[in-house]
Design goal:
Length: 197
């Protein structure tokens, strides 16, 4: 479980294809001091398990399902990634509950600036439509954000300068794909409430 508050931008140093999928080596400047084998780390919003550590690089095994359902399949060495360690019981919950289970891949369709504030619009697949509402929570590449505007197939988030500078959003451009995780509470409500016919 995560909060969607990114703690560091890591650098992808290596991508090794293997029978299980891809072994990713990620360089961390600060969080590496806290990371251990078997720890869960959110990488661009996808929860991964640390399988090896060598110096300031930690490694995760991205399996085929992860490569298919997230943007991981397109990652290349030197790419930047958002990093967050899993939530501890004593931590403040400053964002929202983020499971690290990506629900879909969206595509940035528009970026506009209002001074140092940015509005980023993301297109998403129709199967996510029912989970997304204005003022609701959404995780984009692992970042806890609030939906500012929403219309069918598109959502817009407002990015403050700090978030723009301290996450990978600052390097995104129109056409880039991003991992999306809808609000966990919305999915539980859907499961618990009787289906309408």
């Amino acid at each position: 479980m995560f909060t969607g508050l990114i703690k560091e931008i890591g650098i992808l140093k290596s991508v090794e294809t293997n029978p299980e999928g891809k072994l990713l080596g990620i360089k961390s400047k600060d969080l590496i001091k806290e990371i251990g084998i078997d720890d869960s780390v959110s990488i661009n919003g996808a929860c991964q398990t640390v399988v090896k550590i060598k110096g300031d690089i930690f490694y995760v095994q991205a399996v085929h399902v992860t490569l298919e359902k997230t943007t991981f399949g397109a990652l290349r060495p030197s790419n930047q990634v958002n990093l967050e360690l899993s939530l501890r019981p004593m931590d403040r919950l400053g964002g929202h509950f983020v499971s690290g289970h990506v629900n879909g891949v969206g595509q940035i369709s528009k970026i506009t600036s209002q001074g140092k504030n940015y509005l980023i619009t993301v297109k998403y697949s129709k199967d996510l439509e029912k989970y997304i509402i204005p003022e609701g929570s959404i995780a984009i590449d692992g970042i806890s954000l609030t939906v500012a505007y929403q219309k069918r197939g598109e959502l817009t988030v407002s990015i403050i300068p700090h978030t723009y500078e301290k996450t990978t959003l600052g390097s995104k451009k129109v056409g880039d794909k991003v991992n999306l995780e809808v609000d966990l509470l919305a999915k539980y409500l859907e499961k618990l409430l009787p289906k309408r016919t």
